[in-house]
Write a structure and sequence with these properties.
Blueprint: H1 2-8, E1 19-21, H2 23-31, H3 41-45, E2 53-57, E3 63-66, H4 68-94, E4 104-106, E5 118-120, H5 121-126
Antiparallel strand pairs: 1-2, 2-3, 4-5
Length: about 140
């Protein structure tokens, strides 16, 4: 799971680099007195320190803290985009298009014919992915 995250989780600050899990930064973060107090010693005994993990950007060196739920949501978003793009690429190959008209329509549900989310009108009219909700 962490290998997938380390190779696919992009930085929200620079939008260029990939984040990687940094166990030493995570440990140091929990050692700050305000973060972890002796009154919470049961957490250590139960091995349930799971409030967040610390990730660092390979490019800009930004440090971010994500909960397991945050990481899960990001991984689900990545997988969803990969599935939609794979389906759209298969559909593009199945359509035998001779794109004469250069009018493209942007829907943004996949990478599109132009690689930026736009497809020719003919393709857009036949596309099943355009019916997906925008918030996915």
């Amino acid at each position: 799971m962490l290998n997938f995250v380390n190779n696919n989780l992009s930085c929200d600050f620079c939008n260029d680099g990939l984040l990687y899990f940094d166990p030493s930064e995570t440990l140091n973060s929990y050692l700050v007195p305000e973060t972890f107090m002796l009154s919470k010693i049961e957490d250590v005994i139960d091995k349930s320190i799971n409030e967040y993990l610390v990730f660092k950007c390979r490019s800009c060196k930004a440090i971010v803290k994500y909960t397991y739920k945050d990481v899960e949501k990001k991984v689900r978003d990545i997988l969803y985009k990969n599935i939609v793009n794979t389906i759209s690429i298969k559909e593009l190959r199945n359509l035998n298009l001779n794109v004469v008209k250069k009018v493209f329509i942007y829907c943004g549900k996949c990478q599109g014919f132009d690689g930026k989310g736009s497809c020719p009108i003919i393709m857009y009219e036949k596309c099943e992915l355009k019916r997906l909700p925008s918030e996915l």
